[in-house]
Amino acid sequence: MGIMATIVAFHAHPDDEALLTGGTLARASADGHRVVLVVATDGLMDRVSEAGAPRLAELRASAAVLGVARVEHLGYADSGHGPVLYPDPGDRTRFARADTGEAARLLAALLREENADVLLSYDANGGYGHRDHVKVHEVGRAAAALVETVRLLEATLPREPLVLIARALRALRVPPGFDDTALARVYSPRSAITHAFTVRRFARHKQAALAAHVSELHKPGRMSGVFRMLVRLPAPVFGLLLGREWFTAVERPVAFRGGNT
């Protein structure tokens, strides 16, 4: 058996771990590495009720499927996606409004506690641009700069295939009519990607992890419809569609200078 590593995956919301890195986490765990999952937010827009945060319970169920050894929440609230950043819910700060240095220090403390070898974060665009995903990128880079022994890999997708698909759908007049010009500004160009992991044999794990997020599957909206479609696919088809995961290695993150970004 080779040298075992500790991998910390830092995500914005419950369910992000399944879509972006689920196969990689399951593969790492199956290979004997220690996998730790950290989310910045509990995925809720409002004050947490006495019943607690259901999406964190779903996150723990997803983590169990993926073989994750530890799950942590940094304590922030979901910032929502759209033109308006709503006021804080009263018991938590919205992540987009959080002090970057403070959040980075929380994450860095966990990296040191775990003696982490690898930190998984997000690319500079925050994937598709969600404000919490952009913040994960900023906090991830700042935390990695504080813990010089950790290697930073930023989860992403190659944008070129997305643009081609969007153009094909537009030509075929298939709704909802994705904007390929907007897609040209998301995720990462293929030339920037340094690691592409084949995780097809962990398709069932990734699909089951996604299915664990029951509250997201039953919400109205286009994204929930996509989730429902994905969890209903035969596992081999799911594996063909989502059987690779991409990352960009960051050689040495710039040290954080202070303030909020």
UniProtKB/TrEMBL annotation:
Biological process per Gene Ontology, one example term: glycoside metabolic process
UniProt key word Iron:
no
Name of the protein in question: Putative LmbE-like protein
Species this protein is from: Saccharomonospora xinjiangensis XJ-54
> Any keyword Zinc?
yes
TM helices/strands, residue ranges = none
Report keywords, A-Z. Zinc
Q: Which superkingdom does the taxonomy of this entry point to? A: Bacteria
GO MF term set: hydrolase activity, acting on carbon-nitrogen (but not peptide) bonds, in linear amides
